[in-house]
Every structure is written in C-alpha cells, then in structure tokens.
Amino acid sequence: MQDQINRLRAEIEAYDLSAPEQLEQFRIAFTGRKGQLADLFDLLKTVPQEQRRAVGQELNQLKQLALDRFAQRQQEQEAAAQNSPADPTFDYTLPVVPNALGTRHPLSLVREEMVRIFSRIGFNVAEGPEIEDDWHNFTALNFPENHPARDMQDTFFITRNPADPTHDALLRTHTSTVQVRVMESQQPPIRSIMPGRVYRNEAISARAHMMFHQVEGIFIDEGVSFADLKQTVYYFVQEMFGQDIQIRFRPSFFPFTEPSAEIDITCLICKGAGCNICKQSGWVEIGGCGMVDPNVLEQSGIDAERYSGYAWGMGIERITMLKYQIKDLRLFTENDLRFLRQFEGVQ
Ligand code: DAH
Question: How is the cofactor bound (predicted)?
Fold first, then answer.
C-alpha cells in the first residue's frame, strides 16, 4: 500500500500539464470518481486496523496535492487565455457588425412630434388616468345622464351601477377627461395638450381598434374665437404634413363643444384619388374640435362670462397612418419586427 501511495505521489507531481486538454485527463486519472485515488481509498479497508488511520491521512494529503495542482493549473490556463495575444490573422480594419438598436414605435414618434409642434406655440403637456369615473368621462363634458350621446362611445365599464352612475369606474373613451381635470385645477390662461391612450368596445379591424391614442388640446383665455382654433389646426397640419395639404372643417356634434367640427385633411395614402382608408372620398378625418361649451367651463369652475376657449381631440393612429402610409391599424399592436424595423433611425 505504501509503495502504491509513493508511486502515485510521484506520478501526480510529475504529470505533464502543459497542454490545456491534459488538465481534464489529469482529473479523470487521479481525482475523478473512477480515478486512482478512489481505487486506493477503496483498498483502505484491507489495511490492518492499527495502520489505517495513518494511511488514511496520507491518502487525504495526496488527494489534496492532486486537487491543488489541478486548481493551480486551471487558474494559470484561465489567466493565459485572457492575456493571450489575439488571433494574428484577425483584420482590425473590418467594419464592425452593427449591433441592432431597438427602434422607437411609430406611435411614439408621432406623439413626440405632436408634442414638439404644439410646444412651439406655447402648449404644455398634461396627463390624466386611464381608469376614470363617470364625471370626468361624461357628466362634466355635458353628456346628459341616460342620453344617447353616451352611446356614441361604446364604453368598457369596470364597475357599473345604473342607479348611481356617479360611482362608475371605466376605461376612458377619450382624452377629453384630462381637459376637465386641467380646468378643475387651473384658472385661465390655459394652453395644454394631453396625449394618452383610450379604449372603446369596438371590433378590431384595419380601421378600428379597442385601444388607441389621442392628443387632446385646450386653449382658454379671454376673447378666444373659432378663428384661433382654425389657425392652430392649420399650423399643426402644415407642420406635420407640409404646406400642400388641404384642410376642411365639417360641422359636427359633440356634447362638450358648440359649435363643433370635424377636421378632415387630404388622404395621403391615395393623395386624394380615393382608397379604402378614405372610403373613396379623398378626405380623412383626423379629429374633432370646437368651442368649449360654456356649461363645461362653468361645471369645471371657470367663469364662462369672462373666458372662452377651443378644444380638439386628434387620433394619433390616424395621423401616423397618413404620415407613413400605413394601411392597417392592427400593425401597430402586432409587434411584427418587419414592420417596427422600418422606423429604425427615424427621429
Ligand atoms: N373626444 C372626442 C372623441 O373622442 C374628440 C373631441 C372633439 C375632442 C371635440 C375635443 C373636442 O376636445 O373639442 O371623439
């Protein structure tokens, strides 16, 4: 037994570990479960009782020796791999493989551009919650209780109590809710835009979605007129789409504005020739607008004798579709990289 131990010690000390693959061979031969050390440990039970303790200790020392050699060589190899001179055949003048950057979503790009355009003429940005109450979504905006106007926008209710709608919780159907919050918390002059996500119980198609985005705007001061509203819309549309675009205001109805209008611009997908996005009319609606109803001002704590104002709500999806010739609304939420990557580098 003693001879075997001595021989094995000599073998462990002399083992050539210069090549990387020898390290694993060393481990298998000596310290592995089927290695020579394991064999000797098995023989320990044949050693006479009075020597077993001493031989056992010696075997343990031998095992430690093998483990130490292994660990030391392993460390050396790792250090060498880190410091080794790089592959001499590597061509440092090759262009780098571009690391694909994430791209910004087209809706974010357009929302940010809208914020920039309106901030240049003095509008600040306000925000409000997506889960709203009946008051901010309907009542404060002049939607009478039980009036069919409430059905204009199919609503996702979270809690609903027909006997007492004042406690309803719902997903806001438009960003006009934030107008109310702004008017409740500030006095004129007010110049704010309010970008945000809205929800309606609608079947999803190329032209409609149950979740989309609007940019609301409100301007309240002394002596504000419909002419100011028109000029602001002209300015915005030309900044967004260029000078050649046609704009028209179509009389409409909203409970919270009087008079009210819808804003149409030339369909940029067919350049006015007629397509399925503009329903062959050559015009596309980008939002609604009007003079804020005096009732709405008063209900939010603003003196309607002294102040007047205009407001609008525009759809970000619609504007993005026109700007980038996108023909299907569903592309915005499908997360198809072939679509999203087309906006790489767009500012
Ligand atoms: N809230 C309306 C909608 O979602 C859009 C709208 C129309 C907003 C007229 C306004 C407005 O601020 O004045 O259909």
Answer: Binds 2 magnesium ions per tetramer.
Positions at the binding site for Mg(2+) = 258
Q: Evaluate whether 133 touches 166 at the Cβ level (below 8 Å).
A: yes
Name the residue with the closest Cα to ligand 1, atom 3: 174
Poorest-pLDDT segment among 145-154, 210-219, 222-231, 238-247:
145-154
Q: What crossing angle do the helices spanning 106-119 and 226-241 adopt, rounded to 10°?
A: 130
Task: Report if residue 114 sits inside a domain.
Answer: yes
Please indicate, yes or no, whether residues 235 and 327 belong to a single structural domain of this protein. Answer: yes
- Sequence-distant (6+) residues with CB within 8 A of 131 are 158, 169, 170, 171, 172
Do 172 and 34 share a domain, yes or no?
A: no
Report yes or no on whether pTM surpasses 0.85: no
Measured between its terminal Cα atoms, the distance across the chain in Å is 79
> Which residues line the pocket of ligand 1, CB cutoff 6 A?
174, 176, 216, 254, 257, 260, 288-290, 311-313
Structural domain for 32, as ranges:
2-82
CATH number for the domain that contains residue 116: 3.30.930.10
